[in-house]
Amino acid sequence: MTQRLYYENAYIREFDAVVTGCVKEKDHFRIMLDRSAFYPEGGGQSGDRGFLTRQDGTRLDVSDTREDGGDVYVVCSESVPVGEQIHGVTDWIFRFDRMQNHSGEHIVSGLIHETYGYNNVGFHMSSDRMTIDLDGEISDEGLDEIERRANEIVWADSVIRTDVYSHEEAAEVEYRSKKELMGDVRVVTIPGADVCACCGTHVARTGEIGIIKLLSHERLRGGIRIEMMCGRWAYEYLALIFRQNHEVSACLSSRMHQTSEAAKRMAEENTRLKGDLIGMLYAAIDRKSEELEGAGDVAVFVAGQDSTAAQKLTAKVMETCGGIAFSFAGSDDDGYKYAVGQENGSLKELVADMNRSLDGRGGGRPYFQQGSVTAKREQIEAFLTGRFPEIKIDLL
Ligand SMILES: [Zn+2]
User: Fold this and answer.
1) Residue 366 CB neighbour total at 10 angstroms
2) Cβ–Cβ contacts within 10 Å for residue 154, how many?
3) Cα 197 to averaged position of ligand 1 atoms, centre (Å)
4) Residue 299 belongs to a domain
5) pTM, to two decimals
6) Are 197 and 310 in the same domain?
7) Which of 8, 46, 88, 340 is spaced 20 to 30 Å from 223 by Cα?
8) If you measure from the C-alpha of residue 101 to the centroid of ligand 1, how many angstroms do you get, rounded to a whole number?
9) Judging by DSSP bridges, how do beta strands 28-33 and 130-134 pair with one another?
């Protein structure tokens, strides 16, 4: 039975212990300890990492901590003989992040339980955020209010207390719990926020949580899943968002707290400008088709446009030119989208040949073909004049 130092004091970062068992499992070893400040995975909280220093001074990385019955074991890549004394050092940043987040989760779940009567029915912690699943829905405004109250609990800097009750004593205590518990019950109390049975590690005072930030929520099985983060995770994420918004604000020449309005205005402006450009493009296509009336075979290049422009252009010009109408939209760097049309034409063979010669692909109806080529304008023109010495090459 391992002595669980992390329950005596969650802030023990280094400790001495004796190896009580060592079992090979696949490509690693389970090293059992007589006492452990490494917290084993449980209740949604990850198992600790860190390292062991052996008698001969060598260091052995601990990649995970788990438990088996009453024993806590660490996962290492090498074995250590039973009876050897080791010095264990936890990865404190890793552990403290989880203590901040786990404690913050208690506050949010406790406040929701008190306000709405909903239960936390699922909890998951990844490497930089966590999710809690609730068996009821809460509005956006309701969640904003929970977040505000949760942070007030942080600012109150209250002591987080842990009491251990016997099974019989626990029956008399009011607390939130996910499942029916056997044996002694550890009850964690956060004044004003939560009383909950829990086997995890917590910060000593709520102020150490630093900040509680709810990020998003989605409907899930009749309730909601809330994504949230606390402490250093929240600080780093919000610092990233701040830097992003700083750049956005410089781009939009707007104040930091008004970037969304400026972005909306820019998006509307963009839509309007695109509409104007399309109108101008279509007017230019109409003029070009009039200009090329009776010109015979023609090829028109249009810079920086897409397949729609090529198709519109060809569809218009083929009505007036009296020959084959080629349109190429794009650039030498990005390649060209093409459309080829001729009233009652039979263009399949011609276009197949063009695709072969100009590294392209495409197809369509006999009188109207479309596709793309990667060839440069010079190569396209050489192909066209080779086939149609009289072809008129033009620009839109
Ligand atoms: Zn807990």
Assistant:
1) 13
2) 23
3) 7
4) yes
5) 0.78
6) no
7) 46
8) 10
9) unpaired
Q: What tokens does 356 get?
A: 């072969």
CA–centroid distance, residue 164 to ligand 1 (Å):
13
How many Å separate Cα 192 from the centre of its chain? Answer: 33
| pLDDT tens-digit series, residues 260-276 | 999 999 999 999 999 99
Query: How does pLDDT run across 166-202, given as a tens digit for each residue?
Result: 888 888 888 887 566 678 899 999 999 999 999 899 9
How far, in Å, are 53, 58, 185 from residue 31 at the CA level?
Answer: 13, 16, 27
Spacing, Cα 199 to ligand 1 middle (Å): 6
CB distance 36 to 72 below 8 Å: yes
Question: Which residue from 305, 295, 252 is spatially nearest to 393, judged by alpha carbons?
Answer: 295
Residue 306 lies in domain: 290-395
From 234, 261, 276, the end of a domain falls on 234
Give the integer Cα–Cα distance in Å for 61 and 205.
30
Asked which of 58, 90, 122 is the last residue of a domain, the reply is 90
Residue 66 Cα to ligand 1 middle (Å):
17
